[in-house]
From TrEMBL:
Homology family: Belongs to the cytochrome P450 family.
Official protein name in the record: Cytochrome P450
A single GO molecular function term of this UniProt record: monooxygenase activity
Binding, heme: C409
Organism: Rhodopseudomonas pentothenatexigens
Amino acid sequence: MSIAAIDHRPKSRAPLIPPTPPRAPDDLSALGRLAAIRHNAIASWGDRAYQDDVVRGRFFTHASYILNTPDAIRHVLIDNADNYRRTATGIRVLRPMLGEGLLLAEGRAWKHQRRTLAPAFTPRAVATLIPHMLSATDETVASLRRNLGSPVDLREAMQHLALEIAGRTMFSFEMGTHGQALRGFVVDYGTRLASPRFLDLLLPLGWPTPQDISRARFRRRWTRFIGELIAARRTAGKPEGAPPRDLFELMLAARDPETGEAFSDDQLGDQVATMILAGHETTATALFWALYLLAMDGEAQDRIAAEVHRLGSDVVEIERLPFTRAVLEETLRLYPPAFLIVREAAGPDHVAGFPVRKHDVMLIAPWLLHRHEKLWSDPGTFVPERFLPGASPPDRFAYLPFGVGPRVCIGAHFALVEATLALAKIVGAFHVELIDRDPVLPIGVVTTQPDHSPPFRLTSR
C-alpha cells in the first residue's frame, strides 16, 4: 500500500531534509553514466528513477530495468526468483571477501547453509548474545566519556564498536589483538578492489580481469587471517556440557535439519567471514548515519534520551524502545546499507509489462525505492514517526533494508537488536552535536558510506 498521502511528521518539529548528492541528468550518455557509477553509484540516477514505476535502459548489449513497483519486485525476488541470479560483476566484487558463504551461495549449497544457520539467528539465540553487545557498548561509552567536549570521530568509534560486538558475539573474545588487522583488510579491499572496472563489467566471470588477479591475492591473505581467528577460538575451547556461548559454537554445532550435514572447515571459514563483514560494516554505517541525523534533529535526540532514562538500567529489549527503534528504521530507509540489488535474467520472462530476455539486468535499488515519490510522503525527510507502533506500515516490497524473500538477511533481527541497544546507550549517555556543518554526502561503494567523517562534540546528559 502506498503511504504517499499520509503525513507522519509531528507539527512541532521542523522538517529535516538531510543532504544528498546532485542527481544525474536523465539523458546522460551510457559512458557518462558508467563514469558516474564508478565515482558514486548513488549519484548516477536522474529524476525519472525517483518518479517512474520502471526505467528502461541499456547495459552494454542487454536491456536494464530499474524496478520501483512492489509487484515487479515481488515477481523478481520471490515469485520467479529461480530465473534471476547475481551478475558476474557482483560475484567478482563480493567473492574474494565472502567466498561461498551464505550471501553468494546458490541452489543446493545455499539451501544447506540457510537451513543449517537458521537456528543460530532465532530471537532466542540472539537473546543469549545480548550481554556481548552490551559489554562492548558500555566500554565504548566509557571511552567516549574521556573525550567529552573535544572533537570526536563517531564514524571510527562506531566501526570499533561494531567490530567489537562482531568479535565477541562470534568468538567470545575481544578484538584488540585482531581488530586493527581486520579493519585493515576491509579498508584495503574497499579502497582498491571493491569498485568494478570496465573489464569487470564487460568480461564473463570465467575470464579473469587484472582486478581479479589482485582480488585472488587478497583472497589468499584474507582466508589465512580468518583461519587464524578460527584457530584462536578453537584453542579457547568450550566448557563441557555448557550451552553455546557465541555464534561460532552455534555454527560449529549446527546441522542441516534434513541431511544432518555439518559445515566443512572451508564452509565454516566463509560463514565466519560473511557474518563478521556483513555484521560489523553495515551496523557501523547505520549507527553513524543515525547519529548524524540525530545531531541535526535535537528534538528527536532528546526523545530517545527520555525513552532510555525512563527505563533506567533495564535497556535490554528493543520492544521497550519504540522511538529509538523507529529512528533506526528511518535511518535504514534514508541510508539503506545495501543500496542496490542487481539480478540477471537466466531466461525469458515478463516483468511489469515488459518482455525480458536472457541476460537482461534487473536493478532493485533500496536507495531509490525508499525515496520514491509515489511510495512515500516527504521521501527525502527524516520522519521516525513513520515506523512507530500504530503508523501505517509501508508495503513489504517498498522497504528493503534487509532484502526480502527467501534470501532476506538472516541476521536482520540480530542487527536491529544490536544497533537499537547501541544507539539507546550512546544517546542516553551523551548529547551529540555536529561541529562541522559541511554536508556529509552518501556514496555507494558496496554499502552506503559517508563521503567524509565529520567531527562531533559530545556532552554528558
